[in-house]
Amino acid sequence: MNIVVAMKQIPDLQQIRIRDRQPIFEDVPLTLGSIDKNALEAAVQIKEQQDAQVTVLSVGDENVEDTIKEAMAAGADQCYLVLDDELKNAESSVTAVILAAALQQMEDKPDLILFGEGSGDNYSGQVGSRVAAILDLPQVGFASSIVVEDGRATITRSLENSEEVVEVSLPAVVTVMADINEPRIPSVSQILKAGRKPKEVVEPDELDVSIEAGKIDTISNLAPETERKRIVVKSVDELIQALSSEALIGR
Amino acid sequence: MTAILIYSDQDGFALELATAARSLAPDQLKAVTVNNDAQAQVLTDAGVDVLKINNDGIVLADVAVVAAVLAQAAEKANADVILLTSNRRGKELSGRLAQLTGAGCLTDVSHITAEGGNIQGRRNALGGATVAMQAINTDKKVFALMPRSFEPASGSGGSMEDLVVNIPAASVKLVEIKEKSGDNVDIEAAEVLVTVGQGLADVSQLPAVEELAKKLGGEVACSKPVATDKKWLSEERIIGLSGKKCKPKLAVILGISGQVQFTVGIRDAKTIISVNTDENAFMNTMADYILVGDLHQAVEELNSKL
Description:
The complex is a heterodimer. By secondary structure, chain A is of the alpha/beta class. Chain A has one domain: HUPs (Rossmann fold), CATH 3.40.50. Helix content of chain A is 25%, strand content 32%. Chain A has helices at residues 34-49, 64-67, 69-73, 92-105, 127-134, 188-194, 236-245; strands at 2-6, 9-11, 17-19, 22-24, 30-32, 53-60, 78-83, 112-116, 139-149, 152-158, 162-169, 172-176, 199-202, 216-222, 231-233. Chain A has a nine-stranded mixed beta sheet with strand order 11-10-9-12-8-1-6-7-13, sandwiched between helices. Chain A has a two-stranded antiparallel ribbon with strand order 2-5. In chain A, a hairpin with a 2-residue loop joins strand 3 and strand 4. The radius of gyration of chain A is 22 Å and the shape is globular. Chain B has two domains: 3-162, 3-Layer(aba) Sandwich (Rossmann fold), CATH 3.40.50; 187-305, TPP-binding domain (Rossmann fold, 3-Layer(aba) Sandwich), CATH 3.40.50.1220. Chain B has helices at residues 11-24, 37-45, 63-76, 88-101, 206-215, 224-228, 260-263, 282-285, 295-305; strands at 3-7, 29-34, 49-53, 79-85, 104-109, 111-115, 118-125, 130-136, 141-145, 159-162, 172-179, 192-196, 219-222, 250-254, 271-276, 289-292. At the A-B interface, helix 4, helix 5, strand 9, strand 10 and strand 11 of A face helix 3, helix 4, strand 5, strand 7 and strand 8 of B. Strand 15 (231-233) of chain A pairs parallel with strand 16 (289-292) of chain B.
């Protein structure tokens, strides 16, 4: 079975600083989306139970070649990268078209295509659904469990107030929740071996696909202004008094 | 004239979408319902014109099928703009529907306005570190709106019309629907949240926190590590980027330093109290009332005095 995990390169969000409400990206290291790592772990766990090959697929600028090593160390067998400077920060609809083209070009036809339910940075959650639509594949989002058997997958989809157990025939697109598993930390030897795993790097031209214009315009992107009172109270009594005067307690 | 089409799997959220649609254009609103006559009635009672789809071949769990029928409804309604709810069902649907209709798509939108002939949506970006104003530059647009960001619509004089659609072959088989086991708390609906972080010394201190939440008429919530690492509370109670985004009237934040991954889930609270031993905790800059001190003592004192 061929499992493809789509992963997105993002800036390490913990290290973004804000100056004059503007995000500063200088010297911020690149990493992979946190829920994407859960998707990879889900793939690796399936591979541990049955004959499967795990391919990581990513679209972005040339830095992805380095960033993706993390995924290779964490259990992927190989990677397929579509790289172009114009694909840096590509909008969801653009990325989806490229990913779908790559999936169609792969020599080993994908059976299960996994995504995180949202990227770490934009968390828009559309790319998996868009790819499924382009390839006309069934999809199941927000998976909290995936069991693959005889060309079918039984998936638990976690909704806000209930869980659905569904069956799909493969190939299918599945997006996973962060709580589906705990991604493993690669050992030193796995990290050392990561660089030697097979890697295919292509440009969008080679996939017979052009980079479309993004469908979203960003008018502004600023840290929110916090308009809070910031009143320091000296005691619990003072706090209770303040809350009473705002009618927040004693209703 | 083009219409604004709304769809939600939840009746209450559908009414919120109606309000949002009317804020963009007062009289271009149309709703579509799928196998849900009760919702069609609720919307009609609120003055909305409803296209009713009833077909046993449609299962909501099959997003591919639902997206396909909504695309047909949009065409029938001559709608360029589609508003969905940004709950899990709606979010999953939005990308597929946008792709089918050639639309640009924004999800998790907390506010929309008509500006200069286009619609601008507000949403968190960079994991919540920033808030972006964005617009869709294609004619067809799909917006998924955050639950509880708009008041439910009211009105009168709506209408109902049956809509017959072509159903593509089912792609997903629904085996079972399970109630979520364990904790069924809905912290997003709570008016008061008493929220604990890593400053909570021990799980034995939780009952006192629960008592305080009860006295304030609210629920206990937590930052992510309290649930995922320490497992003191269920993951249903996590506030933040990977948890719930809540806007209670009152949020009491106990022993939380205030990283953006947390604050994104609570910064829309009306009033925030931060109790922290560190007077320079970032959380304090986002608080209305700050009590510098030990949270355990503060909770005990509050419990005895409230």
